[in-house]
Amino acid sequence: MRPVVEPIVKEIEYSFEVYLRQSGNLTKHPEKVVLTGGGAFFPFLAEHIAEKFKLKCYVGDPWGRVVYQDGLKPILHGIGPRMSVAIGLALRNML
């Protein structure tokens, strides 16, 4: 699984470097990593990232601010990470 996970880890490292180099962020440090997208449910990805960066890491819930019927929760949980961008745009009236 290492060949699949390492590019994701490298991208997170690069993002941290870019963020910390920006003016005003020199003394800041990320507190958590929120995974979204289809790869968010990749087995052990969140655990590996949390261990590697010593940060909290979890799969984001894009449905957190959306009202829906309780019966839909299992279905929406399964497709949630793949819908994060679409839901975010819809919540901002961009679609």
Q: Quick one: overall form?
A: globular
* Tally of alpha and pi helices: 4
Adjacency order of strands in the biggest sheet: 1-2
Q: What is the typical, i.e. mean, pLDDT?
A: 89
Radius of gyration based on Cα positions: 15 Å
Number of domains: 2
Query: What structural category characterises the helix and strand content?
Result: mainly alpha
Low-confidence stretches: none
The helical percent reads: 40-55%
Strand elements, count: 2
Describe the structure using short key phrases.
8% strand; 95 residues; two-stranded parallel sheet; single chain; 2 domains; mainly alpha
Give an account of the 3D structure.
It is a single chain. The protein is mainly alpha-helical and 95 residues long. The chain folds into two domains: 1-60, no CATH class; 62-95, no CATH class. The chain is built from four helices and two strands; from the N terminus they run αβαβαα. The protein has helices at residues 2-21, 45-53, 73-79, 84-91, and strands at 32-35, 56-59.
Task: Please describe the topology of this protein.
Elements lengths: L1 H20 L10 E4 L9 H9 L2 E4 L13 H7 L4 H8 L4
Parallel strand pairs: 1-2
Give a quick rundown of the structure.
This protein is mostly helical. Helices cover 46% and strands 8% of the residues.
